[in-house]
Amino acid sequence: MMEETVPHASSPANNGGTSRQRAQHRNTTSLTSTATTTPNSTSTSAATPSVTAAATADVRDDNVDSDDGESSRRRHLHGQNQSIMSWLGSVPLLLSKILLLITVLLRVLFYPIRRVAKLVFPPGEFDDIKLKSSSDKAAKAFVSYFQSNFLANLPPPTTTTGDITTDGVDANDDDAVLAHVMAQSNPFVDVGYSTILSNVAAQTLAFESSNDDNPDGSPPAPPPLVLVYLHSPMHGQVPSFLSKTLCHPQLMTWINQNVQRGSLLCWGTSIHTADGASVQSTFGASTYPFLALVRVQKPSTTTTTTPQSPPLPRVELQLSISGPTLTSLTPQALQIYLSTTLQNHTSGIAEQTARRRARAQEVTLRQEQDREYRDALAADQERERAKAETERVEREALEAVEMVREEGERKGRERVERARGVLEGSGGEPVKGEVGCARIRFMFPSGQKVERRFRGGDGVELLRAFMVTYLDENSGIGIKNFELSSSYPRKVLVVENGDDSNEGGTATMAEENLCPQTVIMVQDLDS
Fold first, then answer.
1. DSSP strands (E only) in 232-333
2. pLDDT tens string 190-218
3. What phi-psi label fits residue 478: left (phi over 0), alpha (psi between -120 and 50 degrees) or beta?
4. Total tally of structural domains belonging to the chain
5. pLDDT tens digits, residue range 309-359?
6. Residue 399 domain flag
7. Structural domain harbouring 85
């Protein structure tokens, strides 16, 4: 029986085969091994090792195939995940582009409509918030409306005695007249809200920056609180609130008094104007009438600004009352609310002023201390400089004295050396009894005496040389500059000044009549 030979899956001939081909190979090998076991046991035992090796190879191939399949599935899943993540990441970008395209299309679509609407419905005189004149007109319109409809209708105060004026006020009662004038004064200003904020912010900045009092001695005026009133003509409770509460003589007098003191600034407008709508949006007003007290701060230094958009002042809301809460208050209760808030503001300003003055005093004290320290340091430096200069002068003087002393010592040594040379050149002292000798006795101011013999032919210069060497050897005598003179008749023989101006003749001992003996007086020239 012939056995069919099939190439192994791992052989070079089968490297490019598929899994199906490898499976057919394993089936064929299994059938072949079964067929070979049928004829006899000898062939079966002979074929058993080859069958076992083939089965082992098939198991390895199965493991390799399973590993390849698992890796292929993982790579496929990883590729799918990456595709999904890439798609999800591109969704926001796609949406943003779609929204931008829609926005551009809407702008293009509604541009003609907006132009037509402006022509058909032109903006009113109070509708342009960017124009300062529009905001001022809105404020002036409210001031006129408030004056003509409410303040002009205030009843005069009742009086019981005195002369009554045409307004029903006692002409002799100054307080009553003043109260009536205060009650009928319009506290609202006729400028726009942005102008109010700018003016109060400038006042706040000037107040916080000032360190000294005014020239008249009074402290700088603190910035006022701003009383903001938003008027809504369409609300039914607004006229009643204005006529009965806000325009109450007692409350109106209190408001005008604080306006005159500079602690309060009133501003009002209608919410149907652009300025009023902007303020309504700023404070989030939803019920009317609306009344608020705000504190205006200087612009923030951290805000990025341009010349076209100057920094905006910061506004702090101190009190806000609106709607039924406001209309239910009596004039006395509303005055208590406003007065309490104003007092708290005044107390805060006072504390701020005290802290500012304390800081200014600390700065002044520190500057004075620094100035005193600099003055003391300069004085110490000047003393050190003067001391150093004095020490330098003294040192130079000592050095000069030392140089003079050293120069004198040097000259003294040179004088002694020259004197010794002269003595040695003369042949020394002659022996006693030598003919023609002169025995000289030198007399010192102290009475001390010394004798020496000289040859008659020696010059009187030898007397100087002897005396110089003798005084150098006997320093206790204390004579440096001397004069040698004969006693009778007195004649100056030698003058020794220790310098080059020495005096002395060139005559010999015999010529000066010093032989055979004489007495020479030694005079100290420094005494």
1. 264-270, 290-297, 314-322
2. 999 989 999 999 988 888 877 655 555 55
3. left
4. 3
5. 567 788 999 999 999 999 999 999 999 999 999 999 989 888 888 888 888
6. no
7. 12-101
